[in-house]
Amino acid sequence: MADDDDAAADRLRDRVAAFLGQHDPHGDRIEFLRARFDAGLAWVHYPVGLGGLGAPRHLQPVVDAAFVLAGAPDNQPRRNSIGIGMAAPTLLRHGTPDQHHRFLRPLWTGEEIWCQLFSEPGAGSDLAGVTTRAVRDGDDWVVTGQKVWTSMAHRARWAILLARTDPELPKHRGMTYFVCDLSGPGVEVRPLRQLTGEAEFNEVFLTDVRLPDSLRLGAVGEGWQVARTTLMNERVSIGGAPMPREGGMIGLLTRTWRDRADLRTPGRHDEILRLWVRAEAARLTALRLRQQLVAGEPGPEGSAVKLSFAGLAQAISGTEVELLGADGLRHDDWSLRRSTEPDLLGRGATYRYLRARGNSIEGGTSEILRNIIAERVLGLPAEPRVDR
Amino acid sequence: MTNLRYDETEEALRESVRALLRAHSPWSAVLARVDGVESYDPGLWRRLGTDLGLAGLAVPEALGGAGAGFREVAVVLEELGRAVAPVPYLGHAVAVRALLTCVETDLLGEVATGERIAVLAVPFATPPGPPEPTVVGGGDLTGTIVGVADALPADLLLVPATDGLYLVEADGPGVSRVPVVSLDATRQLCDIVLDGAPGRRIAAGHAAVGAVTDALTAGAALLAAEQVGVAQWCLDTTVEYVKQRHQFGRPVGSFQAVKHRLADVWVSVTEARAVARYAADCLANDSVDTPVAAALAQAYCGDVAVTAAQECVQLHGGIGFTWEHPAHLYLKRAKSAAIGFGTADRHRAKLAILADLPG
To answer: What pTM did the predictor assign?
Structure first.
């Protein structure tokens, strides 16, 4: 297995070298990225013709590293994280060939940014409660409703959209999944200011938005099944990157501790050490998960990583604000910024403390995550519910 | 490169140990034994240590061992923790680490076959670090060592004394072992009283300090694997119970208050496993990070096992509080192990130095 992988990695490096021989990495950025996609070197585990080579997923870093080494431009994945992390795998799995060819290349190159129109004021963790309606009108669907917590919507061209197409059916049925054109009439995007003062997210108001049936993803009424593909990929994409010791938020706290001897107290010392230990345990768990994924043994540890990451970020940032004492009373900036990508480590300690409140809410609340662990990992029975 | 997974050989080893324990040391047998004078199970040790060849897992083949390493020893300890098995495997493994450091090649042969059980004669609560001997050396040894784990069934005692590390026959003249009524009856402690006991010095000065320190570090790292096994049993058993037990017309395990607590236990056991694997991997590869990994393991895994055992008792309700249910064996093992090789706060203090986080 390992030998096969080594050989496959060598072949991929040869392919990248041949590609670089024909395409100047220092020329036009978009042209270069388009050519890379067409050569199957965008995401190697995607099928031939759709940016990939049908190769094992864990060989992607080999390709990425070879391009980085050549000084080639990347596709700035953090600027289109929903497109790459959630829309693309859902399109690949449930889309038609026409949809594949229309959407995947500009998505990967970053020419078209994507966002996600799932959550609503009345449907957060209980996502199957969406009430945005899509009504059939000839070859079109007419969509009306309100979405919320939509990151990237102010920059996105396209959205993945979950809407109700049959209100008579119980709530997990009667939903349909669409690709929504945000440039069309009837779409209004408003910044949603959050407790940090900035607006990473948006509210999106849809009023009689017309979508051709060709933008439907999956069968009518099967939207929940399609959405599950998206949500599975959401949880995988959070907190998966390997970090060195003290590489995350704990590193900021320990730096303050080392730099500021004047702030140290015995009680705080033990608290810092406890957090250091927890951070190291979470880091090693993420590393172990990654090693298992590389070996083709996906496990449920991703849920543990996300839950720990949220709890730790909150505990560490809270401790840091208190450790700073008088300085912890001061904040850098309350202005309404429109950030383009999440910045969980940037800015000051008070910002991190406030932003970390969102870590246990976004991408599934910690409470919902515990339910998922209890039911899907431990096999415990569901609580009785009245909505099915 | 660090490897935190289990490979196929390790999984096969786990299966064979688990099968053996299922057949020869079910919890009912362990429970029956702890009501006796001595809980140690010599028959189980023979099957495990000698027949399966696990006593010498970490001893090189050239010296009579199985030529595996401490990653494999850790896998065995996970299963022994899972079964709260009353065998001196941990103590023996720690002694093997000391003997390997001392290059005691003659001795390692008989220790590797499991024919002779060796233990490092230090209090079980000793954190890793330079030894503080309570025994006066100079040939015949005199002094008392209190609260030693796994020493009752031992044949050989490795005794840190004021002038080096000595080898003492456990049944020899001038040696008495006084059993202690122990919190963990599946790992009984004893006090060792030496009164002019003849010993052979196998290391002196820095070499002796190094051997004992290495062994204690190994103990802290390996104990974490046992703690993972204890915690995993507590989690699995509790999950099964709350699926079956009905109250208010539905399974107890369908209540969110119960589910969330078990989800949290699962998360911490998952993390403890990664931490313990890291410690075992560092130990096996003589990594420079071994002292950090061992301290981290005991700063984290002990509490995970205690919490899992406490939740096990609690979520079993009334039956969890009875002697007839095995939950208490795990609670006692977990709480004792949280003190073994140093409590978590001592390991955090050590990490403060190792990670440059001064107080």
So the answer is: 0.91
By the CB < 8 Å criterion, does A276 face chain B?
yes
Does residue A123 surpass a pLDDT of 70? Answer: yes
Cβ–Cβ contact A109 with B under 8 A: no
Which value does ipTM take for this structure?
Answer: 0.95
Q: Report the alpha-carbon distance of residue A145 to residue A133 in Å, rounded.
A: 6
A364 has pLDDT over 90: no
Rounded to a whole number of angstroms, the distance from the CA of B195 to the nearest CA of chain A is 42
Positions of chain B with pLDDT lower than 70, given as ranges: none
Q: Which residues of B299-326 are buried (b: 16+ CB within 10 A; e: fewer)?
A: bbbbbbbbbbbbbbbebbeeebeeeebb
Question: How far apart are alpha carbons A37 and B223 in whole angstroms?
Answer: 51
Model confidence at A2, pLDDT cuts 50, 70, 90, reads low
Helix (H) / strand (E) element for B46: namely none
Cβ atoms B212, B231 nearer than 8 A: no
The single-letter DSSP state of residue A125 is S
Parallel/antiparallel/unpaired status of strands B200-203 and B164-169:
antiparallel
Per residue in A52-65, pLDDT tens?
A: 999 988 788 889 99
Question: Are A378 and B263 in contact (CB < 8 Å)?
Answer: yes
How confident is the model over A283-301, as pLDDT tens digits?
999 999 888 877 777 778 8
Q: Return the CA Rg of chain B.
A: 20
- Residue of A266, A277, A381 with shortest CB distance to B243: A381
Residue identified by tokens 């990248």 is A16
Rounded CA-CA distance A292/A289 in Å is 5
Placement of tokens 């009752």 in the chain: B152
Model pLDDT for residues B28-37, shown as the tens digit of each residue:
999 999 988 8
Rounded to whole angstroms, the Cα distance separating B42 from A75 reads 64
Cβ contacts below 8 Å, chain A against chain B, sum to 124
CA distance A370 to chain B (A): 5
Instruction: Outline where DSSP puts E strands in B230-347.
Output: 246-247, 250-251
Chain Cα centroid distance, residue A104: 17
